[in-house]
Amino acid sequence: MRLLRRLPAVAWMRMMGADSVAYHRATVLTRGDDHPGQALAYYASRGETPLVWGGRGADALGLQGAVSENQYEALFGPGGACDPTTGNRLVRTTRPGMELVISAHKSVAELGVIGRAEDMHAIMDAERDATLAYLDDVTCRMGGRRGRAAVRTPTEGLTYATTRHATSRAGDPCPHDHVLVANLVRMDDARGGWKAADTALWREHLHASTMVGRVAGARRAVELGYALRPDPGPSGRLGHWAIAGVPDVVMEAHSKRAAEIQAEVDRTGHESYRARSVAARTTRDPKRHTVVGELLPRWRADIEATGWSVERIAAEIDLQGAAHPLPAPTLNAAEVRAVVEEALASEGHLATRKVFSRRDVIVAVAPSLYGADLSELSRVVERTLGDPEAVPLIGVAGASERAHATATTIVREQAIAASVEAQAARHNAPAVSPDAAEVAMAAAEGRLGHPLTEGQRRAVQTILTSRRGVELVVGVAGSGKTTALAAARDAFEAAGYEVVGTSSSGQAARTLGREAGITEVRTLASLNWRIRHNALRLTDRHVAVLDEAAMADDASLVAFLEAAREAGAKVVAVGDPRQLGAVGPGGGFEALMSRFSDAVHVLEENVRQHDPAERVALNALRSGDVEAAVSWYADTGRISVSPDRDAALDAVVAGWVTDVSNEFEASMYAWRRANVTELNRRGREAWEALGKLLGPELVVGDTSYQAGDRVVALTPGASGEVVTSECGTVVEVDLQRQELVATMDDDGRCQRFGGEELGAAHLAHGYAVTVHRSQGATVERTHALEDGGGRELAYVKMSRAKERSVVYAVADSVEQAVEDLGWRWAQSRRIGWAIDSGTPAPEARPDSSPVPQVNVPGALRHARLVAERATVAAVVPTDPGLAYNDAQRRVRDLQGQLDHLDQGEGWGVWRGTPVGDAAIAWKQAVTEQRSCLARAAHARLWERSQLRQQARRAAERQGPLREAFECLAAPERFRIRAELPKAERALADLDDQYYAHLHFTLAHPEALHRLERLDHQIATAAYDLDLHREGLDGIAPEPPPLAPHPGLARDFGVPDRSIGLGL
Fold first, then answer.
1. Model confidence pTM above 0.90
2. At residue 845, does pLDDT exceed 70?
3. How far is the C-alpha of 17 from the C-alpha of 183, rounded, in Å?
4. Which of 180, 278, 917, 973 is deepest in the core (most CB within 10 A)?
């Protein structure tokens, strides 16, 4: 199903400035941005609604009904709000209030066009009222600020004025509610009085209030008989719903205003909420009072132009409503449990946030409740926050609500810290003598042709000689981290140790192997898998190097660290938390740096950039002095300004073409994939104009490839030979085989791509890449489009080039670009650990609870037991179990099939198949001939002749029958002879695993006993958690589960009715 290109992710909110009072008087109070009188049928029985007062705070001022101009001036006039009756100043502020716009989904807007305006307004009323009621309630609870510490204080609620407009500025059906929220609250504490509101609180709760409104609107739609469908939006994160049956093409036809804003966003190249607000203001039509005629007939004509009709849409909506059972207003206990488990999943939205509050839970669970009663949202939110997996945190700085973290998150963080603590305390890890370290560093300097930096020498010396189990190397971009690792690797290998390398991304792992000379390198996911499946066993003679450690998510990091600790291997983790972070829940590397300073080695001397002044600017950007960095880029001409996105894209390509034409190694970067795609299209056109593309053209979908094309691998492929983000140049196109051959940049090897590897999900043009794909790369010059991403991403893209980095911004002037970059690059996206934000609160249970009071929350106990079990299980070689038996059976079956084919046996494994039938027919002819000849030897004279004739006929049939059998048997023999060696190799591998497991368990019988004990403890803890959950769900408790049988310990999987921790 095609989705609308853009829909509002949240209700729209912005501050009202002192100079905007007149503007809002014209656009809201007097309906200047609507089309008054031209869509009366769209308003249905209510007519065009005036601006009316609302909120609990309005009651305190006696404000009811329609807003008069005097009342508007009193509450929203310059200088701050005044009492509308006495004229006394209530608050002094330069910001009169906030403007909030609540828009219905476009499918709801279409109800009014097809003659169901009453339904449309009913749904919108429910959404608006719930949105504002939520904000009013939040404001009552903590909407005031008291004292210098700005302590959040209860108030008497919001004071706002609201009206409904039916149209967009482009004259499309776009019902939306304008809400002007006055910047004042009456304090509801002992001191009382009026104060300016805590507007930051409204912004914090804007997303949550939007989701509350959507739940209420969805329920009203269901009550009116409409079926709903989810609308995740283009990004997959919209979390909205739509009326089922409303065609997307019709909604697109009535989205001219959205198209105007999107076109402006595309023009500027900025996609943020702030940028869209600017685009909305920029594209306002100053001639909005131009008469456009009665709108409803025009809207219906737009529908006809799409091939639909009002009647057909109405019929489709009714059909969808009848075909889909309407959701029940309430959820049963199992449904509530499912929503809670999804919200608190180990890799879910809340876990990724690390620390979350009630408003975050509302956003997470609301999409699962569309169609249910609004009261169910509160029930599910409270159930989520009350779940043992949601652990309250104490002492979270700046938190306006109780903060929480998932038990899985906390235990993973604690496990990582504990593992590194144990490693840091060790003094028996792999090491070499100081003299051997000096020899390795001297050899490295000989290869480089210049000395190592002081930071590199200190890091190498300590890594090689400390005997600690862990070393943390923090290196700024361009500090020569892999150079230092290469020297350490030389010394370790010379001393007989084995060095393995890993990184979160395939390209970073490949770079680590090439530049540090590490032979065994894999992605972190691959390395962890091989360790779990006994394909790689670390020992106390191993040194495990983790590059780009800041990009490792917590789950992968704890598995890696625990495997190394249990094996006695030394870990060297290298990274920079000021560069790009983990995609999932992460932050571990920075947290470890702050805890284990003795194991931290800092490479702070940047040796990549040739210009020392540029190194200073990059250091300023990395440390957060964005103003100094941006000023340097502006002063040195490194900021290119273009009036719109198209011009900026052209400028990026033009700069790149200039460099590659002069034989510089240059790259183009952008953050957003859409911009990378466009840079690739334009870059390829320029490349072709330079005469770089030759020979036949292979077209795959919408992408064409010729010799000379730059390509990038988007996924791993070719049996591990190709890694993600690896780039190359096409050297040959084979149209007959539909394949291409590329020379890869990393090692110059020729790599063939064909079949699925050419698909859009696996291969793309590589003239430009995303900044994430560039981390770890070094080139001579870079050209980066400024399209967001925050400070860490800016630091990465501006630090790839040795000679010159240019950023291309959309702005009217360099001065404006400097201001914009200063704001965007100041936004840090680093996420810290939950346990560094607050302390897990002790578990509190009512006196009537059958579970005893404890200080450690049950979910933490359960998670720690699961983590401990995973650690123990990782040490025990995997028992292939049923897989071993299956492999044996598979080899026997293949051998039996081949033997029967060679014997021409059709009654065995081949019975009932064409080849079996052919074998039986052939063998029957053979048997018939032999039987006739045998009988003829003892038959009377007149029978002997007949039997011999029958034998001859049987012999004549044998040739064709055997030939028919062989024709059918030949491909089967070929298949079996191809499969049998693979099956035998698989069996041999499993055989090795079986005997490794057998020998280990004989040598360490305590391991299985420990697993059995942990299984019992986990089952008991899970039952404890279920008692708690069932109490929350109102379910009668079940009998406690039996402990798993010891024989089940070898499968290392324990059935767990609690939330899966994924450790």
1. no
2. no
3. 11
4. 180
